[in-house]
Amino acid sequence: MIVNFALSFIFASLALSSPLTSSNPLGLGGQFDVFARNVAISSGCSTTGTASCHNTSAVSNTCCFEAPGGLILQTQFWDTDPSTGPSNSWTIHGLWPDNCDGTFSENCDPSRDQSAITSLLESAGATSTLSFMQTYWKNDPDDGSDEELWSHEWDTHGTCYSTLEPSCLPSGSPSGTDAVAFYETVVRLFQTLPTYTWLANQGITPSSSTTHTLTSLENALAAEAGVTPMLTCDGSNLNEIAWYFNLKGSIIDGTFVPIDSPVDSDCPSSGIKYPLKTGSPVSTTSVSSTTTTTTTTGTPTSTGTPGPLPTKAMIVAIHNGAQVGGLLTLGTWSTQTLATMTLAGSTSSFTMTSSKGSCGVSGGELTCGSGVSATSFTAISSGGSLLVASGGSTAFSSSAVPSGETVETVFTGSSEAQTYTLAIVST
């Protein structure tokens, strides 16, 4: 199942929509602190300039501007014969840098090929990224091992990103840092694209008998994502999707700007099947300001009354009725990949610990770290969710809403300009 799309169009112009940052609207079995967030690796590039494929003149600094491969596809599988991955999630295929005219290059630098991806990620400390890949980045067993697919995707596509050239990396970066950054970005972007849940939200779930029109599938996904992807079918069976982007900045830490697919879907106009997978579902959680929804079968169902305090959880920020990131390991608010917190106690009194140390409030500021004195929080039920409360109040605030790589200090109460609540989402 190692393929690429044959593109024959001329890419003239694409309308930009709102930038997609690294929030995870689904959770996909738990968000993960990844290597790029725990170890100092940064492109040093701005994300406020022109998006790839939208420059009007040649760009000299291709460390901070993806070229020529500025038309980026995040591709996902829906494998059913044989089934791979969770039964309630699509799986990762890859992240491909097509040229702006629709052509593409492959295997751009064999000297940077990688074959032992597990060892590479473990050596880099990217074990959370690896763990996620082992569940959500699956190869067809008839085509080889998962590791072979991971290696193929880096060798074939990852080595073609201009912003991942070794000369673009921070000085002194170990060999293989380019590949580690690639895998982390693939995981982080995939976490923002919950295709299964978006279809389920529109009433479309796998079935052994139901058929769909291509228009209904595309319209359902566009209603959720704001852009139309490219769908691919194997005969009448839906089996792959491609989400298209331009990029501001570097593939390491840039802003992905979602766009409509410039390529028509490769499916029949009607009679499309979305077949069932065998295997087990994973717990996948989405959060709104009033409800927490847990999906373990084909259709999302409200949890109703919140259950007991989980021992492992993400702390998700709800701002103006929508999920906007959550807490990182230092207790800051961000739209980057969220921390998994350890909660100890009960809803009436619990402590919270990240991988950095205990979390506590001092002078009205929330922090987590090795020298922080733990604060006792409470969990208050609200509309089917468990909200973190400090001093009896569920209000938290920051001076601004984070985006991209920015993080914001979290304060208790509503003294700052942006007020929100923090929902506890079991992992």
Automatic annotation (TrEMBL):
Q: Where is the RNase T2-like C-terminal domain?
A: 308-421
Indicate yes or no for the key word DNA damage.
Answer: no
What GO terms are given for molecular function?
Answer: hydrolase activity; ribonuclease T2 activity; RNA binding
Name where it's found: Cytoplasm; Vacuole lumen
Q: Which CDD domains match?
A: RNase_T2_euk
**Keywords attached to this entry:** Cytoplasm, Disulfide bond, Glycoprotein, Hydrolase, Lyase, Nuclease, Signal, Vacuole
Question: What segment(s) does the record annotate as region Disordered?
Answer: 274-308
What does this protein do, in the record's words? Rnase which modulates cell survival under stress conditions. Released from the vacuole to the cytoplasm during stress to promote tRNA and rRNA cleavage and to activate separately a downstream pathway that promotes cell death. Involved in cell size, vacuolar morphology and growth at high temperatures and high salt concentration.
The similarity annotation says: Belongs to the RNase T2 family.
The cross-references to PANTHER family, in alphabetical order and at most eight, read: RIBONUCLEASE T2
Under what name is this protein listed?
Ribonuclease T2-like
From what organism does this protein derive?
Lentinula edodes (Shiitake mushroom)
Specify the taxonomic lineage.
Answer: Eukaryota, Fungi, Dikarya, Basidiomycota, Agaricomycotina
Gene of this entry = RNLe37
